[in-house]
Amino acid sequence: MALTSADLGDGTYRNPVLDADWSDPDLLCVGDDFYLTASSFGRVPGLPLLHSRDLVNWTLVGHALQLLEPARDFRKPRHDCGVWAPSLRHHDDRFWIFWGDPDHGIFQVNAPEIRGPWTRPHLVKEGKGLIDACPLWDEETGEAYLVHAWAKSRAGVKNRLTGHRMRPDGTGLLDEGKVIIDADRIPGWFTLEGPKAYRHDGWFWIFAPAGGVETGWQGAFRSRGFFGPYEERVVLEQGDTEVNGPHQGGWVRTRAGEDWFAHFQQRGPYGRVVHLQPMRWGDGGTSRSWGSPRSSEAESGGEAESGEGWPVIGDEGVPVAVHRKPRLPPQPPSVPATDDDFPGGRFGRQWQWTANPHDGWATQHSGDGLRLSCVRTVDAHDLRRLPNVLTQRLPGTPATVEVELRLDSEEPGARAGLAVLGDAFSWIGLQREADGSVRLVHRFAESVAEHERDAAHPREAPEGRARLWIESGAGARCRFSYDVGGGRQPSGQVFAATPWRWVGALLGLFALAPVGGGHAGAASFTQFRITSSFR
Question: Could you give all domains of the chain from N- to C-terminal order, each with its CATH number?
Answer without folding.
Answer: 12-324 (2.115.10.20), 352-532 (2.60.120.200)
